[in-house]
TrEMBL record:
<dbReference type="InterPro" id="IPR012340">
    <property type="entry name" value="NA-bd_OB-fold"/>
</dbReference>
<dbReference type="GO" id="GO:0005524">
    <property type="term" value="F:ATP binding"/>
</dbReference>
<dbReference type="GO" id="GO:0006310">
    <property type="term" value="P:DNA recombination"/>
</dbReference>
<dbReference type="GO" id="GO:0006281">
    <property type="term" value="P:DNA repair"/>
</dbReference>
<protein>
    <submittedName>
        <fullName>ATP-dependent DNA ligase</fullName>
    </submittedName>
</protein>
<comment type="similarity">
    <text>Belongs to the ATP-dependent DNA ligase family.</text>
</comment>
<dbReference type="Pfam" id="PF01068">
    <property type="entry name" value="DNA_ligase_A_M"/>
</dbReference>
<dbReference type="GO" id="GO:0003910">
    <property type="term" value="F:DNA ligase (ATP) activity"/>
</dbReference>
<keyword id="KW-0436">Ligase</keyword>
<feature type="domain" description="ATP-dependent DNA ligase family profile">
    <location>
        <begin position="103"/>
        <end position="154"/>
    </location>
</feature>
<dbReference type="InterPro" id="IPR012310">
    <property type="entry name" value="DNA_ligase_ATP-dep_cent"/>
</dbReference>
<dbReference type="InterPro" id="IPR050191">
    <property type="entry name" value="ATP-dep_DNA_ligase"/>
</dbReference>
Length: 283
């Protein structure tokens, strides 16, 4: 059974609130796990069934084998680096050959972190407050090799956020204890992301659609193509021809004379910026 997931609104800074629960945000993908009459189905946040992608999640450790719908995050973890491996998870998601999927389930298994219980033993729990659903999740789901309940704390979000520094979480979720589960974005659930920051040189621009090619330490690390305000685009466009050095079918290349300040989620395994955001021109 697919249930439209509740989504988080973004907030810039951590805060304290005794009316909220605070959770670490796993660097993975949203997943709903449905167990109905002994049959497991797995769904993405968009309702796409991906049951065959993750055979290691087919044994759901729900007490008594009761029907249930769990909301959470699926992730791959790299034990060698002590971090989550979103690129590996993307590989798993894209696999189609059954043998390849079975081998990957052994070589690079995923893990499901449950943070909500939406149905249990035939009862719809979405109108219950989150605090009560958390209590029921604790009693219904047993931790196993492939399943865990996501930890959380009450009230002290600022200290919790700071404690995550240097740990492999992409941010913190703040959820009101009284919140009902609604299948849309709602302000009673918020996310505060952890970012890295860097100055990057603009070394080219895309010909046919907006996008600045950027480099860090003389290596191409990504493309800035979203959320750049028009005044900055126009300012760069006014000097781009003067600093152009060459072109190919897709790009015009320029001298690295203009730097941009960006924030981003992390570095990818191949040394590129994950989800970069433009903050302004750097001094």
């Amino acid at each position: 059974m697919f249930i439209a997931p509740m989504l988080l609104e973004q907030r810039e800074h951590p805060f304290d609130d005794e009316g909220c629960l605070f959770e670490p945000m796993i660097d993975g993908r949203r997943l709903l796990v449905s167990l109905e009459r002994g049959r497991v189905r797995l769904y993405t946040r968009h309702g796409i069934e991906v049951t065959s992608q993750y055979p290691e999640l087919h044994q759901v450790p729900v007490a008594g084998g009761a029907d249930a719908v769990l909301d959470g995050e699926v992730a791959c973890f790299d034990a060698a680096t002590g971090t989550f491996a979103p690129e590996r998870l993307t590989e798993r998601f894209r696999m189609r050959k059954p043998m390849q999927i079975r081998e990957a389930a052994v070589r690079q298994p995923v893990h499901f972190f449950a943070f909500d219980l939406l149905r249990c033993d035939g009862a719809d729990l979405r109108d219950l407050p989150l605090e009560r659903r958390k209590e029921m999740l604790s009693g219904a789901l047993e931790d196993s090799r492939s399943f865990s309940k996501l930890p959380y704390i009450d009230g002290d979000g600022s200290a919790f956020y700071e404690a995550m520094a240097g740990k492999p979480f992409k941010g913190m979720a703040a959820k009101r204890k009284s919140s009902r589960y609604v299948g849309r974005r709602d302000g009673s659930w918020q996310k505060i992301m952890r970012y890295r920051y860097a100055n990057v040189a603009i070394v080219g621009y895309r010909k046919h659609h907006f996008g600045w090619l950027v480099a860090h330490d003389r290596k191409i690390v990504g493309l800035l193509d979203r959320d750049v305000p028009d005044p900055y685009r126009q300012a760069f466009g006014g000097v781009s021809r003067e600093i152009a050095t060459g072109e190919d079918r897709d790009y015009v290349y320029v001298k690295p004379a203009i730097a941009a300040r960006v924030r981003f989620r992390d570095w990818t395994a191949d040394g590129r910026l994950r989800m970069p955001e433009f903050l302004g021109f750097a001094d």
